[in-house]
Each structure stands twice: as structure tokens, then as C-alpha cells.
Write a structure and sequence with these properties.
Elements lengths: L13 H20 L4 H4 L11 H21 L25 H20 L20 H27 L5
Length: 170
């Protein structure tokens, strides 16, 4: 699998631009994980951190679910890997955790996010509320936040990938 990344057109309308940058950053995370074994994908960046590429993918599946299912459409979908007892569960990997499962779950959450977002205009407020703040968000805010979230974690992914096999790149 070779991940192709495309930046949105420089003259795109706002929604196309936001969706394009979000897709670009989703593709970047997939690209950073490409060609590695499950063991390499579970490799933590540096002690004491448990941050790994597979953990980042699992985290982003949780983030996609939280914003585009729970907040945007008020879906009662529960967490995938974390719990009250283990709030960072997506980062706590074992030998049984596989890339196939993490990637498949992440892609399923991305597809749900796309379907749900298609029902809203940029100014439309979410049907659900954030669990901590109780606020509703418009789709524009969600897209902007997700771009920021992916961009930050893609920076982490750059460093982890370099640690794992020396590969670098933008």
C-alpha cells in the first residue's frame, strides 16, 4: 500500500479546503505507519512515554469517534480502547494488538465521520454536546480542531518513525 497525499487546491472553497486539509493529515498519519511491522508500530518513542505509531492511530480513531459521532450527531457509541479505569487505554498496547485491527477501526471511524459531516453545513451546530464543557460546536470548528489534532500528532509520528527505522520526511 502506498499512501498518496494531496494538498487541497489553493483556490478551493472553504468546505473543500477544510475537508482537504483534514484528509491530507489523515493520509499523512497513514503514510508515517506504512511499511512497518506490528512490533515496530507498537514501539514506544522513548521511555517513559508509551507513545507509539499504533497508539497514535488508535487515539485518532477515538478522537474521530468522539467528535464526529458523539458530539456532532449525538451518537451514544462508547469508547473503543479507553475506559474510566484506563483513560489512556488506546496507548496501552500488548503483543495481541495488531495494525490490521487498529487501522481497520480507524478507517471505519473516518468513514463514519465523513458520512456524519456530510449532513451538516459549516455553520450548523452539533446535535450533541462535549462531555466536559457541555458546549455544542459548529462543523467548521470541528474540522479546524481535527486538522490541528492531526497536525500535532503527525509531528509526534515524525519523531517516532525516525526512532523506529530512521525514516524522515514531511
Amino acid at each position: 500500500m502506498t499512501t498518496e497525499r494531496r494538498e487541497p487546491a489553493t483556490n478551493a472553497d472553504e468546505r473543500t479546503m477544510l475537508e482537504g486539509w483534514l484528509e491530507y493529515h489523515r493520509q499523512t498519519l497513514a503514510w508515517k505507519c506504512e511499511g512497518l511491522t506490528d512490533a515496530q508500530l507498537r514501539t514506544a518513542s522513548v521511555e517513559p512515554s508509551e507513545l507509539s505509531l499504533m497508539g497514535l492511530v488508535r487515539h485518532m480513531a477515538e478522537v474521530e469517534r468522539g467528535w464526529f459521532r458523539k458530539v456532532l450527531v449525538n451518537d451514544e457509541a462508547g469508547p473503543i480502547w479507553f475506559s474510566d479505569a484506563d483513560p489512556d487505554g488506546e496507548f496501552h498496547l500488548t503483543e495481541a494488538d495488531t495494525w490490521e485491527e487498529a487501522y481497520g477501526t480507524w478507517q471505519s471511524e473516518i468513514e463514519a465521520a465523513r458520512r456524519n459531516a456530510a449532513r451538516f453545513g459549516l455553520d450548523d451546530l452539533s446535535e450533541g454536546k462535549h462531555r466536559r464543557t457541555g458546549e455544542r460546536y459548529n462543523l467548521r470548528w470541528l474540522y479546524t480542531h481535527m486538522i490541528e489534532e492531526y497536525a500535532r500528532h503527525n509531528g509526534h509520528a515524525d519523531l517516532i518513525r525516525e526512532r523506529v527505522d530512521g525514516a524522515t520526511g514531511d
